[in-house]
UniProtKB/TrEMBL annotation:
Stored InterPro entries: Aminotransferase_I/II_large, Kynurenine-oxoglutarate_AT, PyrdxlP-dep_Trfase, PyrdxlP-dep_Trfase_major, PyrdxlP-dep_Trfase_small
CDD domains linked: AAT_like
Gene3D superfamilies listed in its UniProt record: Aspartate Aminotransferase, domain 1, Type I PLP-dependent aspartate aminotransferase-like (Major domain)
Cofactor or coenzyme needed: pyridoxal 5'-phosphate
Name of this chain's protein: Aminotransferase class I/II-fold pyridoxal phosphate-dependent enzyme
């Protein structure tokens, strides 16, 4: 009997932690604060317009780069928020989710043997995409409780093979934001070493205490060599639609689109039309997003005040980190398994986002949930 010989292109990858923890949450009927998706629904207008355009027959391919009216609305949005004047037809590409945009951007800049700098704890799609392009991810660790970038360490890691840097702000999973001093140092290194930049800004509209999000789009010199990735799913509570976009200078966009057309070709046409209407008719949804999620964060934080967890600052995203070192000294994976099986709350261990876990006793909770869900979860966690 012949056996199929197959060598995995990603031999070190198994089932994702999100699939694992959600599966455990379902099995043990736990409150699921692990996977990062909202418990509440998308806006009414968005759903109504989706149904309208489906019914009206807009069910065939859109242009590969996206529908022109949606590209125009994206350019208008970024102009209002960041003061950026772009030609949407040449710089905005609508994608099937931000993860597709990240994958395509990484494939665009990475050649075999190239090195791409990423910051741990890192979103788990970065390194596989780099490896599939024949490159190598160079990990720079950010450590609790500040999760600040050590810029001298970054510069020391740059070699003649370094092709680019991936940043993520507001940052998943640490919930920290990059500050102007970070961007000043980033620009210095990018220009000095002639690097490309991928800026993952999917939580751009979710920052707290009135602190504005700093985007690469606001800096002409950085944007000239950057791909900026955004997510409609995060902004409009419709992660299942898998709609995002990439903004890049014209020459980089041309290269991006060469690959994008052979990954998904184009994205869901009725959703593009519905999102166009949403951006045009209800712009206040975006301005209300930060206070909406700040309220959610505060509900969970206040409900956990009596617990023995140390609550780390959440400056953006819809995640909150808890240090459990006053409760247990077991590793974070074992602690999360204990929480879901015995306490009835599913969380994510932070170690899975590191190449070399630092041994911190830190877990991540998602607060994109109804208030009652957050309060019930806190009631289960607080007696620990």
């Amino acid at each position: 009997m012949n056996t199929l010989a197959h060598s995995s292109k990603l031999p070190n990858l198994g089932t994702s932690i999100f699939t694992t923890m959600t599966g455990l949450a379902n099995r043990y009927k736990a409150i699921n604060l692990s996977q990062g998706f909202p418990e509440f629904d998308a806006p009414v207008l968005l759903k109504q317009r989706l149904a309208k355009y489906c019914e009206q027959g807009f069910n065939q391919y859109a242009p590969s780069c996206g529908l022109a009216p949606l590209q125009a609305q994206i350019a208008s949005l970024t102009g209002r928020i960041y003061g950026t004047d772009i030609n949407p037809l040449d710089t905005v590409t609508v994608t099937s989710g931000a993860t597709e945009a990240l994958f395509v951007a990484i494939q665009t800049i990475t050649h075999p043997g190239d090195e791409i700098i990423i910051f741990d704890p890192a979103y788990d799609s970065y390194e596989p995409a780099i490896e599939l392009a024949g490159g190598r991810a160079v990990h720079i660790a950010m450590l609790a409780p500040d999760y600040a970038i050590n810029w001298p360490l970054v510069e020391a890691a740059i070699t003649e093979k370094t092709r680019g840097i991936i940043i993520n702000t507001p940052h998943n999973p640490s919930a920290k934001t990059l500050k102007q001093a970070d961007f000043d140092k980033l620009k210095e290194l990018v220009l000095k070493h002639d690097l490309l930049l991928i800026s993952d800004e999917v939580y751009e509209h979710i920052t707290f205490e009135g602190t504005p999000h700093i985007s690469v789009l606001s800096d002409a010199e950085l944007f000239a060599r950057a791909f900026v990735i955004a997510s409609f799913g995060k902004t409009f509570h419709c992660t299942g639609w898998k709609m995002g976009y990439c903004i890049a200078p014209e020459k980089l966009t041309q290269e991006f689109r060469k690959i994008h057309q052979y990954v998904t070709f184009s994205s869901f046409t009725p959703a593009q039309l519905a999102l166009t209407d949403m951006l045009a008719e209800e712009p206040e949804h975006i301005t209300a997003l930060a206070p909406f999620y700040q309220h959610k964060r505060d509900v969970l934080v206040n409900a956990l005040q009596a617990s023995r967890f140390t609550i780390l600052p959440s400056e953006g995203t819809y995640f909150l980190l808890l240090d459990y070192s006053a409760i247990s000294q077991i590793d974070d994976m074992a602690f999360c398994e204990y929480l879901v099986k015995e306490i009835g709350v599913a969380a994510i261990p932070l170690s899975v986002f590191y190449q070399t876990p630092p041994g911190d006793k830190v877990i991540r909770l998602c607060f994109a949930k109804e208030d009652v869900t957050l309060q019930q979860a806190a009631e289960r966690l607080s007696p620990l």
